[in-house]
Amino acid sequence: MKTLVIGISGGSGSGKSHFCREFIKEYGSGNVILISADHYFKKELPKMISPLTQKEYDDWNSPESLDYDALMEDVKRALEKAPAILMIEGAYIFVYEELRELMHLKIFIDTDIELRLYRRIKRNMKIFNMEMDEIAEYFTESARFQEEKYSIPTKIYADIIFNGAKDFTVPKQILKAYIGSGSWQG
How many CB atoms lie within 10 A of CB 27? Predict the structure, then answer.
């Protein structure tokens, strides 16, 4: 059986990882391999200058921040294992044509910037012990500009766009129907 490759993209905090976790929980983790681009940041990040303040920041929010070769190596290795489904999620995965061409289905999770900032603050405070002001400053002076430049425009490559502000019941049903149709195999 052919492996179904699904790409899930959207801005930081849009709900990409949450959607993947929910889908895998329902579909069965034994049938799905998930590769998150967040695990492929370069050890030495490129820098970016904020257009707002001219302050220099580590750039976590552009395709140049990813070790694309390592990501592709792991994608190819996962395909050799021939899982039923390979999910690749990340804010910038649709930037890369070679990666897009592997995908049978490209999903973009679109969420308002205010909700994404709230989720980013909540997540980074919990996981990275960051202060709210630090997270908000980085987002407003750096991340949002890089997302507007690199991530958000890639929704034109999406086959389907889901609203990340709603629960994912209907999107999961749509994805299950697509998988069941088998149309992606031909």
Answer: 17
| Separation of alpha carbons 168 and 84, rounded Å | 21
User: What is the chain's mean pLDDT, rounded?
Assistant: 94
Quick one: which of 117, 116, 114, 113 has its CA closest to 137?
A: 117
- C-alpha span between 161 and 143 (Å, rounded): 22
Q: Which long-range contacts (CB under 8 A, 24 or more apart) does 173-182 make?
A: 175/6, 175/23, 175/105, 175/107, 176/26, 176/27, 178/105, 179/4, 179/85
Specify the higher pLDDT residue, 27 or 33: 33
What is the number of other CB atoms lying within 10 angstroms of the CB of residue 48? Answer: 22
- What pLDDT is attached to residue 31? 86
Residue 1 has pLDDT above 80, yes or no: no
Write down the residue that tokens 């999910």 correspond to. 87
Question: Whole-angstrom Cα distance, residue 39 to residue 159?
Answer: 25
